[in-house]
UniProtKB/TrEMBL annotation:
One of its GO terms (biological process) is ribosome biogenesis. Coiled coil: none annotated. InterPro entries: CCAAT-binding_factor, Noc4. It comes from Takifugu rubripes. This is Nucleolar complex associated 4 homolog. The keyword Hydrolase does not apply. Signal peptide: none annotated. It holds the Pfam family CBF. Belongs to the CBF/MAK21 family. GO terms for cellular component: Noc4p-Nop14p complex; small-subunit processome. It comes from the Eukaryota. The chain crosses the membrane at residues 353-375, 381-401.
Length: 529
């Protein structure tokens, strides 16, 4: 019995190998059968079975087969066009065999789309990516060969419903879709896809906001931000040249002015990490494309009041609203003054903060006490700042003094009583109100202290306070992005070697008692080294 049992095992193994081999080649083979003869239409169920398999290779292969099959059927016009009747009614009704086939394949196409949409939530990126690519191939084929019987002189032949379904899946409330959205970015380069994706995002946001009622949805909000930040909106109509679906006429809806979006996510309550992500792109990717930027006032002012890094990032948007849209923000400079903390020299957005602070303090109409408060606070912070921060703070202070001659009193303020060794600084660092801090009665003794700094560039910059300041302001933009590594590289690249001073006079009475030529020879040798 043992040989028989072994034979059975061998036969079973061979059968399994043959089955695996058949499964690997079945999708393309089934597609060929269906396309060659309508009598093999039921073979589509075999492809669907593989599409729901647990093996990655089977799912990827089945997705490719579905793309080939249904794109070809769309091109051949072999699927029912218009409002499709129920499948049971079609099979039992008075329809021709050709009509029954087209209705059957139309229903299978809808089933395939539903299964591919489910794959977008798959934990394996390779499977989700295959489903996404297949769906977008469906969208392109359906756009060029529409299934809906509409008057295309009034509408665009674009598969809106399919794109909306894809966007709804990408904007999941439970699954982080950032990796899949990055793959989707390739399709956002096409103008029509970008337009309808923005429209779908707006529709999705409206529904979610109505249902959530202010509830924080961190995963959903992150997906919305990731998708919207990948959309680059053109500014000119002439730039609209790339389309997934060919259009026969120019419609007013395609004008660049129409391609604008309101980021409704800003209305939602955002976690701190999302605030930072939104604020980073808000000033250049959102506000320029809004028809009413004033709608962002509440969001930006709320972010500005939070303090820390969020307040620093909110400065960009507030600057645009103040200078271009006449925003009246009470106590703005008081809040800006409070942002000057020791951490400002170490945050990631240091360069952006000092650039904007320089713009806000550029007006010559600011009161002297306010300018003095900023200059004094920066000077006090400079005592513990790194060299890279000092190379920003010192020129910043000098520029403030150049713009406002009334604060030059901070440079040289003699003591009231001669011979007094200790003078109490009237400036109060802990005071939050720049009008009450007493900066105008103080002096910039901190800069004098920095003249003894270990870094030569810092001590040189601090030494400028001893000479009359020239009227021309220094360009601080050159040092805003300077890093410690760059400072070290600059020092290491210096090739000038200073000559070491040596004794140039011959030493007298050297090696007395040594006598003669030996003493003179040693002396000459030493002095020549």
């Amino acid at each position: 019995m043992a040989p028989v049992s072994r034979k059975r095992h061998v036969s079973s193994a061979v059968a399994e190998q043959q089955t695996d081999k058949r499964v690997k080649i079945e999708p393309n083979h089934k597609v060929e059968e269906i396309l060659q003869s309508k009598k093999h239409a039921n073979a589509v169920y075999d492809i669907f079975e593989l599409l729901q398999s647990e093996k990655v290779a089977d799912v990827v292969g089945a997705a490719g087969a579905c793309s080939r099959l249904f794109c070809c059927l769309l091109q051949r016009r072999e699927m029912f066009q218009g409002k499709v009747p129920p499948e049971e009614e079609a099979m039992s009704g008075h329809y021709s065999p050709q009509e029954k086939y087209s209705i059957f394949m139309r229903h299978r196409y809808s089933s395939c789309v539903e299964m591919l949409l489910e794959l977008l939530d798959h934990e394996l990126h390779q499977i989700a990516e295959s489903g996404l690519c297949c769906l977008m191939q469906f969208a392109a084929a359906e756009g060029n060969h529409p299934l809906l019987d509409l008057d295309w002189s009034e509408h665009h032949s674009f598969p809106r419903e399919l794109i909306l379904a894809v966007v709804n899946k990408l904007l999941s409330k439970t699954v982080d879709s950032s990796l899949l959205i990055s793959r989707f970015q390739e399709f956002l380069e096409m103008d029509d896809v970008r337009y309808y994706v923005m429209s779908s995002v707006r529709e999705n946001l409206t529904k979610v906001m109505d249902r959530s009622r202010g509830e924080v949805l961190p995963v959903y909000q992150s997906n919305v931000f990731t998708l919207m930040s990948n959309i680059s909106i053109p500014n000119q109509e002439s730039e609209l040249t790339s389309f997934m679906v060919k259009q026969g006429a120019n419609h007013a809806d395609w004008k660049a002015a129409k391609l604008k979006v309101r980021i409704f996510v800003c209305i939602l309550q955002l976690p701190s990490n999302m605030y930072k992500k939104v604020l980073v792109i808000l000033h250049d990717s959102v506000l320029p494309h809004m028809s009413e930027p004033s709608l962002m006032i509440d969001f930006l002012t709320a972010a500005y009041e939070m303090g820390g890094g969020i307040s620093l990032l909110a400065l960009n948007g507030l600057f645009i609203l103040i200078h271009e849209h006449n925003l009246d923000y009470p106590d703005f400079y008081k809040k800006l003054y409070s942002l000057l903390e020791p951490s400002v020299f170490h945050v990631k957005y240091r360069a952006r903060f000092f650039h904007l602070a320089n713009l806000f303090l550029s007006s010559s109409h600011l009161p002297a006490y306010l300018v003095a408060a900023f200059a004094k606070r920066l000077a006090r912070l400079a005592l513990t700042a790194p060299p890279t921060g000092l190379l920003i703070a010192l020129p910043f202070i000098y520029n403030l003094i150049r713009r406002h001659p009334s604060v030059r009193v901070l440079l040289h303020r003699p003591s009231e009583e001669e011979g007094e060794s200790t003078v109490v600084d009237p400036y109060v660092m802990e005071e939050e109100d720049p009008a009450q801090c007493g900066a105008l009665e103080s002096s910039l003794w901190e800069i004098k202290t920095l003249q003894k700094h270990h870094h030569p560039d810092v001590s040189k910059a601090a030494g400028l306070i001893n000479t009359p300041l020239v009227q021309q302001e220094e360009d601080i933009s050159k040092v805003l992005e300077t890093t410690t590594y760059q400072l070290m590289e600059q020092e290491l690249k210096q090739t000038v070697v200073k000559k070491i001073p040596l004794e140039f006079e011959t030493a007298a009475h050297f090696l007395q008692g040594g006598g003669g030529a030996l003493g003179r020879h040693f002396c000459l040798t030493f002095t020549s080294v």
